[in-house]
Amino acid sequence: MTIYLNGSFMPIEEARVSVLDRGFIFGDGVYEVIPVYSRRPFRLAEHLQRLQHSLDGIKLKNPHSENKWADVLYELIARNEPDDQYIYLHITRGVAKRDHAFPNPPVPPTVFALSNPLTTPPAELLQSGIACITVADNRWLRCDIKSIALLPNVLLRQAAVEAGCAEAILIRDDAFLTEGAASNIFVVKNGKLLAPPKDNLMLPGITYDVILELAAANSIPYEVRRITKTEVFGADELLLTSSTKEVLAVTTLDGKPVGNGRPGAMFARLHPLYQAFKR
Ligand code: PDD
């Protein structure tokens, strides 16, 4: 596997980062995950815009222009197999003596990208849907930043796995839905798709945007607004989206069936639309 690190391409075995890197010490960095279909990064401009938003959020200068990023990522894709991949891109504030405040003067950021084979959910999972648990959203108040400091998300996802589930659905203040530990969540009620608002309490998902665009283009009724915990439990369907999972039906929540316990009509409409759109 060939990776990109600080301006060079190299085998992953040769890649080295200092133990003083602020990503390692403080989790002081941001990341992106970009799906690649048939060797083309999907929604690259949108991913790069969100990267810029994350960098602005942590006051870190973007090391590359949009064109330079495109060059780097296309070369990374060309140097790896297979045709469908996903890029993990990671930027930290660089290497400096440990001190919470930013290094002054600034040091060069650490810029890292790798590409893995993309395995989208298998047919069985599309047919069965997935099981989720609900958990209290105990993360910070800047969940719109795609921070590499993911310990809360790690613990929340692990709680799901220990409950035999695929994902944790996060409820803020015991009152309303935010998102999943590493995904966005939609509720379906009476034929309408409901989406939580893109605010500081959730990551503005690229897949989330595609789903809402597909709904608009196909006359599927939808509404973006706060969704209560009660509405989550009373949903006809729950949908999960992310760059690597695409669209999945959540068919079990906290051990109980969602709707009739099988992927529903909204999933049956949106999944093929997404498949057609991504190519
Ligand atoms: N995670 N919310 C959170 C907290 C996420 O980590 C992700 C994606 C999403 C979905 O965003 P998008 O549709 O842009 O992938 C929502 C990636 C896949 C990850 O951390 O691996």
Walk me through the structure.
- This protein has 279 residues and is an alpha+beta fold.
- It folds into 2 domains: 2-117, Aminotransferase class 4, branched-chain amino acid transferase, N-terminal domain (D-amino Acid Aminotransferase, Chain A, domain 1, 2-Layer Sandwich), CATH 3.30.470.10; 123-278, D-amino Acid Aminotransferase, subunit A, domain 2 (D-amino Acid Aminotransferase, Chain A, domain 2).
- Helix content is 29%, strand content 29%.
- The protein has 8 helices and 15 strands.
- The protein has helices spanning 22-26, 44-57, 66-78, 123-128, 151-162, 206-217, 229-233, 265-278; strands at 2-5, 8-11, 29-37, 40-41, 85-92, 110-117, 130-136, 167-172, 176-180, 184-189, 192-195, 222-224, 237-242, 246-253, 256-257.
- The strands form 2 sheets. Strands 7, 8, 9, 10, 11, 12, 13, 14 and 15 form a 9-stranded mixed beta sheet that branches. A 6-stranded antiparallel beta sheet has the order 2-1-6-5-3-4.
- A hairpin with a 2-residue loop joins strand 1 (2-5) and strand 2 (8-11).
- The protein is globular.
- The mean pLDDT is 98.
- N-(5'-phosphopyridoxyl)-D-alanine (PDD) is lined by residues 33, 153, 179, 182-184, 203, 205-208, 241-244.
